[in-house]
Amino acid sequence: YYTEAERSALQLYDTVQKYYGESHQISAFAALRTAAVYFNSRRFSEARNWYERALDCLNHCEPFNCKYDRLRVTALYKIAREHQNSGDLKKAWEYLAEAIAIAQRCAAGADHRYWNLELTYLYRRAAVLSLAEDRAAADRYLEKMHEAAWTVATAEQGNPIYEADIGETDAQFLQSSERYEEASAILKRNLLIYEQFRGETHEDTLHAR
């Protein structure tokens, strides 16, 4: 499967960059797709090379449409993740900080729901990165994650399923920081929400148990 996916992704990138050139937003999109194939096949070094190629392309091209900033944040976040996984936390912070700055700027615009949702993931990554050296900073990023999440939840008119999904992210963070009682309380609340709104046999309910 991955061999065929790799072949298709490389063919797509080759076709796109020949038509648009290497310094074009659509070429960057094709590079991100290729990176995802390598990441999903656990070839992380090659994945990072393609994420970096996509970012370099975006750094040298003009925005083609409104998705330009989305692609930049995606590339920055993915590169930050790869540096974190390889143990280079300084580099991870460098890329993550730029991604957060772009998302914060864009969240003030018309597409605020999308960008606040992005910020929930970015702040969670920042909280996890902070855990090893600064627990207070990790808690501050977790609070920011909550603020972004509730902004989206308000737009969703208090959608309880969304609140439970955010709770799942909260619980994972709390478990990673060994705050098991707090995580357990959130997971119990989530189970009640899923039972009420998803049903007893839904996969979310079964997973929550």
Helix segment tally: 10
Number of strands: 0
The oligomerization state is: single chain
Order of helices and strands: HHHHHHHHHH
First-to-last CA distance: 33 Å
Q: Overall 3D geometry?
A: globular
**What integer is the average pLDDT?**
86
**Radius of gyration over alpha carbons?**
19 Å
Tell me what you see in this structure:
The chain is mainly alpha-helical and 209 residues long. The chain contains ten helices and no strands. It has helices at 2-20, 25-40, 44-59, 68-85, 89-107, 112-130, 135-155, 160-176, 180-197, 203-208.
What is the secondary structure topology, with strand pairs?
Blueprint: H1 2-20, H2 25-40, H3 44-59, H4 68-85, H5 89-107, H6 112-130, H7 135-155, H8 160-176, H9 180-197, H10 203-208
Helix pairs in contact: 1-2, 2-3, 2-4, 3-4, 4-5, 5-6, 6-7, 6-8, 7-8, 8-9
What does this entry show, briefly?
With 209 residues, this protein is an all-alpha fold.
List keywords for this structure.
10 helices; globular; 209 residues; 0% strand; 81% helix; mainly alpha
